[in-house]
Design goal:
heterodimer; A: about 325 residues; mainly alpha; MetI-like fold; globular; B: about 525 residues; alpha+beta; 17 helices; about 20% strand
């Protein structure tokens, strides 16, 4: 078991190296450098342009810039954002809790609705419920997030007035200093009556929008995995022993059917973070997704490189965790090695 | 005893909450996060708007105009033929306190010296803090304008210029010339955290900074002791909302009272909504089509005039600007003082254009290059689409236009070097002084690498441009500028295409907002009717 985990950890190293290289090169392939893109009709004198390029190290050969970057990264230095002059790591850490909160809530919604919905569909295979659910999941899977988000805002917020349009809390009624960066926790800590409820109210719609895609995937995956498991001999044996249908399906079948679902959940984290970019933009959610998009427009190389590295690290760590979790749920995997 | 204390606390807390709820809060849905809160190191309207409530300048634009009036300087004397300006500073102006800094002295000349010298002197202790890029200070050519700046006494600043240039007053009203607290700067330097200076603003402005959370919210509290036009609301909140559709939705549900930059497509619906108010005016910009006056056949005035009549600009405004633009006939927009409305516009008349070309000895078909802008600009929503429409119009007078473009930085550089024979370009004004537009057609800017894209240099025009800089009487200056607009119309160094139209949208209960020709969003004097 320990050897297995160690091996998985060692395997992430080449992934990180490739990542460093790709983010570094990709941003430099986009035309316009950080100094150029900020200049409007005024233009910029060649002397000033040269001065800023020198300051930012852009006058160095690219391979040297890369080595400098890797060297600093190895020392835990993610650089300084060009547009705000703040350390990239600090900016990331201020914004990341918001993304994490949103992604976590989205995943929670996806699992809580997706797993039972898929399981029921499997049990009632071929029923109208099954057909409707599968059609809904295809729709959910192919829904463009931007459009879906705006549609729901139009209906829930504008038409029915059920949820706020965007933001994380009512800015007029509540004001407290962020402590953890997680609005739910900060609201609960704030002693302001109704703040927590209001924060939840703000979280509901964006979390649902972001959770739609994983919800669709999880429901489908649970269904097909359940169908497979329900045909197994041990389920027949369990039934034959006279166990209640709930125990058969809910405990014996579902637990075994969850193995591929856990993998899918792990894999969805990447999709969730990329979906967060759009969700955050529509719902004015102050997370890292929106920050990265702006960094691209500003050609803020350090923020972009640092941000992508940090987010990728999260994705890599999550998939590592899923692999480990996998072996915990399914003893066959850890014993096979 | 204990329980009564707790009850007491609860009561006080409830009281606090209820007063907070009855306080007037104005919520402004802005489009993005500021880079930081020192305008001198920023260059976006978003950042300027975000910091402006906290600050004042020596001289200030009267709200809703481009006219320069007193600010932290109560009055000023111009002597030495426009080369020396003495500013007499306002007394008893207090800086706003923040959580961990309480100012001990009033605003004085040291703060002015600090704010200018930080940008000007490379050896200033704050020069390199936060990146040390002072784009506007350099763009407005301040290092070449300023000779010296001295403190005569605590409340008098004497500024000497290298040559007479009265337009510096408009420069000093710009955001980059914001006056910040020298005492605060010293305090942070001693504490070892000078970067905080640009993150937590301490100024003398109508609002005091409370808090900022990146990509979420900026909070201001009214400065009840403000020396100028008083804020009428208690709190000012910037709700950062990047998506224009979401901003509109928030405006409709009342989550914000005012929004920036509505989508043109939403305007008709907004204008019909009785709970909303939409106002508009031309923006401080111009889009033009430059002819290279050094290259034949555009060295002939008649040819340039003919090309002015060849393009159906109304069609372009209608189909490309979609209502967010208006036809231009002068280089400056009509919101600027000295705009000459008597200047006639060139009509759209392809027949006459064709005849004039023939008369000027131009053989058709004529091949020219038409360079179009590769990026969207405030005054040009779609360079390529406009170029295609122009191409079609030109074909009607026997001119084959080849469309050319480059990446924006390269494009601008080649235009300034005078490479294209005809090219789209434009300008966004900085300080609302007409000189900030007309210098674009001055002889100094017509050099290779200069901003005069048509490379047109007219002696008479240029003399008036230079003379206007020495006059402190605005009426005298306006007369010169009006004459210059007539010359420019006659000589037609370019074809004026359009000014954008800027829309501001707010809820009906918002009163007292004045739309600024400079595109500023200022909230002192703005109120919410209940």
């Amino acid at each position: 078991m320990f050897r297995y985990i160690l091996r998985r950890i060692v395997l992430t190293v080449p992934t990180f190296v490739a990542l460093m290289f790709i983010t570094f090169v990709a941003i430099r392939l986009v035309p316009g450098d950080p100094v150029e893109v900020r200049v409007g009709e005024h233009g910029i004198s060649p002397e000033r342009l040269a001065m800023f390029r020198r300051q930012l190290g852009l006058d160095q050969p690219v391979w040297k810039q890369f080595l400098d970057y890797v060297w600093r990264l190895l020392h835990g230095d993610f650089g300084t954002s060009l547009s705000t002059s703040n350390p990239v790591l600090r900016e990331f850490l201020t914004l990341f809790p918001a993304t994490l909160e949103l992604s976590f809530a989205a995943m929670l919604i996806a699992v809580i609705i997706g797993v039972p919905a898929g399981a029921i569909a499997a049990v009632k295979r071929g029923s109208a419920y099954d057909h409707i659910l599968m059609a809904a999941s295809v729709t959910g899977f192919s829904m463009p997030i931007f459009w879906w988000g705006l549609l729901l805002i139009m209906l829930f917020s504008e038409r029915w007035g059920l949820t706020p349009v965007s933001g994380r809390i009512d800015l007029i009624k509540y004001y407290f200093e962020p402590v953890t960066g997680f609005m739910l926790i900060d609201a609960a800590l704030s002693d302001q009556k109704g703040a927590l409820l209001d924060a939840l109210h703000h979280l509901a719609l964006p979390a649902f929008v972001l959770g739609t895609l994983p919800l669709a995937v999880i429901a489908r995956m649970t269904r097909s995995s359940m169908l497979e498991v329900l045909n197994e001999d041990y389920i027949r044996a369990a039934r034959a022993k006279g166990l209640s249908p709930f125990r058969v399906v809910g405990l014996h079948a579902l637990r075994n059917a969850m193995i591929p679902v856990v993998t899918v959940i792990g894999l969805s984290v990447g999709a969730l973070l990329s979906g967060a970019v759009l969700t955050e933009t529509i719902f004015s959610w102050p997370g890292v997704g929106k920050w990265l998009i702006e960094s691209i427009f500003r050609r803020d190389y350090p923020a972009l490189q640092g941000g992508v590295m940090l987010i990728s690290s999260v994705v890599i760590l999550v998939s590592l965790a899923v692999d480990i979790l996998y072996s915990v749920i399914n003893p066959r995997i850890r014993h096979a090695r | 005893m204990k329980s009564s204390k707790i009850a007491m606390c609860g009561f006080t807390a409830a009281l606090l909450v209820s007063t907070a709820a009855s306080a007037k809060t104005l919520v402004y849905c802005s489009e993005g996060s500021p880079e930081n809160f020192t305008p001198a190191i920023n260059d976006t309207g978003t950042s300027f708007d975000a910091a402006r409530p906290a600050y004042d300048q020596l001289v200030e634009f009267k709200r809703g105009t481009t006219e320069v009036g007193p600010g932290l300087a109560e009055r000023w004397d111009v002597t030495d033929g426009g080369k020396t300006i003495a500013f007499h500073l306002r007394k008893g102006v207090k800086f706003n306190a923040t959580k961990d800094f309480v100012p001990t002295r009033d605003f004085n000349a040291d703060d002015v010296l600090f704010s200018i010298n930080r940008q000007w002197k490379p050896d200033h202790p704050y020069h390199k803090i936060s990146g040390g890029k002072y784009d506007y200070f350099n763009d407005m050519d301040m290092p070449n304008l300023l000779d010296s700046i001295e403190k005569k006494d605590d409340y008098t600043i004497v500024m000497k210029l290298k040559e007479p240039n009265i337009t510096i007053l408009a420069d000093l009203a710009m955001d980059f010339a914001t006056i910040q607290s020298a005492e605060y700067a010293d305090y942070l330097m001693k504490k070892g955290t000078p970067e905080q200076f640009d993150q937590i603003p301490v100024g003398t402005g109508p609002f005091a900074f409370v808090a900022y959370q990146k990509d979420a919210v900026i909070r201001y509290r009214a400065n009840k002791n403000y020396w100028g036009e008083k804020p009428l609301v208690d709190d000012l909140v910037f709700a950062i909302t990047p998506d224009p559709t979401a901003r509109y939705a928030k405006l409709k549900t009342g989550e914000c009272h005012f929004m920036i930059a509505p989508r043109p497509a939403d305007l008709p619906e907004m204008q019909k909504d009785p709970t909303l108010k939409v106002i508009s005016q031309p923006g401080l910009n111009v889009a033009y089509w430059a002819f290279n006056n050094l290259k034949p056949p555009f060295d002939k005035k008649e040819v340039r005039q003919a090309f002015n009549m060849a393009i159906d600009r109304d069609a372009i405004i209608r189909d490309v600007y979609l209502g967010a633009g208006t036809k231009a006939k002068n280089l400056i927009p009509p919101t600027l003082w000295s705009y000459n409305d008597k200047v006639p516009d060139y009509p759209y008349d392809p027949e006459k254009a064709k005849a004039m070309l023939a008369e000027a000895g131009v053989k058709t078909p004529l091949d020219i290059d038409l360079w179009y802008q590769p990026v969207q600009r405030p005054y040009n929503p779609n360079g390529k689409r406009i170029a295609e429409m122009m191409q079609a119009d030109l074909a009607k007078i026997g001119v084959n236009a080849k469309l050319v473009t480059y990446e924006w930085g390269e494009y601008r550089k080649r235009l300034q070097d005078g490479e294209p024979i005809t090219a789209q370009m434009g300008w966004t004004g900085d300080n609302g002084d007409p000189d900030n537009f007309f210098f674009l057609r001055g002889c100094a800017a017509a050099r290779i690498g200069g901003q005069n894209i048509p490379k047109w240099c007219n002696k008479e025009y240029d003399e008036m441009l230079v003379k206007a800089r020495t006059l402190s009487d605005q009426n005298e200056r306006a007369k010169l500028y009006q004459k210059m607009q007539e010359i420019e119309h006659e000589e037609a160094p370019d074809m004026k295409l359009a000014h954008s139209i800027v829309y501001e949208t707010m809820r009906a209960e918002v009163s007292g907002f004045k739309q600024s020709p400079l595109g500023r969003h200022e909230f002192q004097g703005v109120d919410l009717k209940q």
